[in-house]
UniProtKB/TrEMBL annotation:
Pfam families: Pkinase (PF00069). One of its GO terms (biological process) is signal transduction. The lineage of its organism: Eukaryota, Fungi, Dikarya, Ascomycota, Pezizomycotina. Belongs to the protein kinase superfamily. It comes from Penicillium rubens (strain ATCC 28089 / DSM 1075 / NRRL 1951 / Wisconsin 54-1255) (Penicillium chrysogenum). This is cAMP-dependent protein kinase. Transmembrane segments: none annotated. Residues 32-51 have a biased composition (Polar residues). Its EC number is 2.7.11.11. It catalyses: L-threonyl-[protein] + ATP = O-phospho-L-threonyl-[protein] + ADP + H(+); L-seryl-[protein] + ATP = O-phospho-L-seryl-[protein] + ADP + H(+). Residues 80-335 form the Protein kinase domain. Residues 1-51 are annotated as: Disordered. Keywords: ATP-binding, Kinase, Nucleotide-binding, Serine/threonine-protein kinase, Transferase.
């Protein structure tokens, strides 16, 4: 077992070595910006305890309220009151903001255009906005609007109040089997939805999984999300003529998300990732290519069986990527007690309810970051604005 040194406690940012590959442009024309929600969030009677039973069998009937998105044009910085920073990433900073109109709280992601251009992230950033705009699912963050000024791009999303799964996992060291199963199952449903919409996510990790006020997951950060055509070989013409990369689908296939689901489940159950190395990313890549995994003896045999079928370099054996698709994952023995339709309705009690005051801009579950003094909403020379036509 690798030692849990300081490195593991740090949030992991994107690796730029993954960024060089040119992705093709494929606009869907969905450029409308949204009015922030006028609906009330569901009320909840959660007690805010840290020690809820780690069971996915408890059932509650939470009132489901439909989130209607109204498209009413663009926003500007004047529509929102800036509050503290919630998180920083490789390319952006996310602030808590309060709407000057409905006084609700939102998360505003700010990306510096010059930085995006310098890091060759134009395509990915436009994709992030388009993908987020297209998706609507209980376990995916909702995008309400975007705009840009001369320096920055802005995306306003739901403020997901319960903090990162990353923080909870590091506090807990590792999750008991049922807890890991609950979060893994919600991620599985989100991946199933994305893949059904021809979107690969490509950045699954606990830092991008947020807990809502009821303890359910919301996936944020669509910075690497990408629409891909369905290249499952069963559907793609005459097999004799397919290129090897289509058959093995390296890089751009949905299969990459199932691999990372395996890594996520491993990390939740063990507290560290299977190929982790304190040395350098290169060492980690070597470990990945070697593909040798030591499963700790405390793992349930069903978990080991599922993990070995997800974290396999053999794409003809990787669960989720086979003829049965996501159903193969959902029907695996490790998930036997999950009632999928109830889970999809959030009709299953979450194992942990974040201790927050809902709806009040309570950001106590997020780490504190040094604040930036840059004044948003500046006018002036804008050499990069044309590169981001949808914002
Ligand atoms: N909707 C949200 N509500 C609350 N916090 C959020 C929200 N979206 C993002 N955050 C916080 O901001 C952090 C950074 O956001 P995000 O992951 O989108 O940025 P990024 O630059 O793409 O990150 P990275 O490169 O590190 O993956 C998240 O890890 C999370 O802590
Ligand atoms: Mg992120």
């Amino acid at each position: 077992m690798p030692s849990l040194g300081g490195l593991l406690k740090k949030r992991r940012t994107k690796d730029s070595q993954d960024l060089g590959k040119p992705d093709s442009q494929n606009h869907d024309g969905s450029g409308a910006s949204m009015q922030p929600a006028s609906h009330s969030p569901p009320q909840h009677s959660g007690t805010g305890t840290h020690e809820n039973a780690a069971s996915i069998d408890n059932v509650i009937h939470q009132e489901q309220q439909k989130q209607e998105r109204v498209t009413k044009g663009k926003y500007s910085q004047e529509d929102f009151e800036l509050q503290r920073t919630l998180g920083t990433g490789s390319f952006g900073r996310v602030h808590l903001v309060q709407s000057n109109h409905n006084h609700r709280f939102y998360a505003m992601k700010v990306l510096k255009k010059a930085q995006v251009v310098k890091m060759k992230q134009i395509e990915h950033t436009n994709d992030e906005r388009r993908m987020l705009n297209r998706v609507r699912h209980p376990f995916l963050v909702t995008l309400w609007g975007t705009w840009q000024d001369s320096r920055n791009l802005y995306m306003v999303m739901d403020f997901v109040e319960g903090g990162e799964l990353f923080s909870l996992l590091r506090k807990s060291q590792r999750f008991p089997n049922p807890v890991a199963k609950f979060y893994a199952a919600e991620v599985t449903l989100a991946l199933e939805y994305l893949h059904a919409h021809q979107i690969i996510y490509r950045d699954l990790k606990p830092e991008n999984l947020l807990l809502d006020r009821h303890g359910h997951l919301k996936i944020t950060d669509f910075g690497f999300a990408k629409d891909v055509p369905d290249i499952t070989w069963t559907l793609c013409g005459t097999p004799d003529y397919l290129a090897p990369e289509v058959v093995s689908s390296k890089g751009y296939n949905k299969s990459v998300d199932w691999w990372s689901l395996g890594i996520l489940i491993f990390e939740m159950l063990c507290g560290f990732t299977p190929f982790w190395d304190s040395g350098s990313p290169v060492k980690i890549y070597e470990n990945i290519l070697r593909g040798k995994i030591k499963y700790p003896p405390y793992l349930h045999t069903d978990a080991v069986d599922l993990l070995s079928q997800l974290i396999t370099s053999d794409l003809t054996k990787r669960l989720g990527n086979l003829h049965g698709g996501p159903s193969d994952v959902k029907n695996h023995a490790w998930f036997a007690e999950v009632t999928w339709d109830r889970l999809a309705r959030k009709d299953i009690d979450a194992p942990y309810i974040p201790p927050i005051r809902g709806g009040q801009g309570d950001a106590s579950q997020y780490d504190k970051y040094p604040e930036e003094t840059e004044h948003y909403g500046q006018e002036g020379e804008d050499p990069y604005g044309h590169l981001f036509p949808d914002f």
